[in-house]
Amino acid sequence: MTVMNLDRLEVWVRTKDFALAVYKEVVPHLPADEKWNLTSQLKRAAQSIPANIAEGHGRYHFLDNVRFCYMARGSLVEVQSHMALAHDLGYLSDDFDQRMTVHAESIGKQLNNYIAYLQRSKQGEKEFPSGYTVREEPEPYHLDNPGEDFTNH
């Protein structure tokens, strides 16, 4: 792959390899009746890790890149949660679970270091006006009882 040198971004390569390990080494151990539940969630979360790193890498501004790395980190923790459940349900051996946990934690540390590097380097800072920030607009809360309006209190 040569798209924007993504294949030279070590954290992306490692997270892609981790996703492949989930697909090839974890998923086959899950029972068929988990196909639409745990298996589906695990596969989606695993592929989301390198996909978010790639998307952030393609944004050309460090704040966008950091935001997508945060999402990748969240997906990594989600994979760990799904694998912990799979282990507790007896689908994964203790040894295999420990090996994947160590792998995930190592990737998490590397991802945190990459985020810190992005924040220090401020790549792409000159691409946007100086007041450019990444923020999320708050979503309004939806109440169970639509007849009551608590937004003015």
Topology:
Blueprint: H1 10-26, H2 38-57, H3 62-88, H4 94-121
Average the pLDDT over all residues and give the rounded result.
Answer: 86
Strand fraction: under 5%
Query: Considering the protein shown, what is the CATH homologous superfamily?
Result: 23S rRNA-intervening sequence
CATH architecture: Up-down Bundle
DSSP summary, beta strand count: 0
Q: What summary fits the major beta sheet?
A: none
- So what's the CATH class? Mainly Alpha
Order of secondary-structure elements? HHHH
Overall, the morphology is: globular
* Amino-to-carboxy terminus distance: 55 Å
Helix content: 55-70%
State Rg.
Answer: 19 Å
What's the helix count? Answer: 4
CATH fold group? de novo design (two linked rop proteins)
Structural class: mainly alpha
Low-confidence stretches: none
Query: What does the oligomeric state look like here?
Result: single chain
Summed up, what is this model?
Helices cover 60% and strands 0% of the residues. The chain contains four helices and no strands. It has helices spanning 10-26, 38-57, 62-88, 94-121.
Question: How would you describe this structure to a colleague?
Answer:
Helices cover 60% and strands 0% of the residues. It is an all-alpha fold and 153 residues long. The protein has one domain (10-123): de novo design (two linked rop proteins), CATH 1.20.1440. Helix 3 runs antiparallel to helix 4. The mean pLDDT is 86.
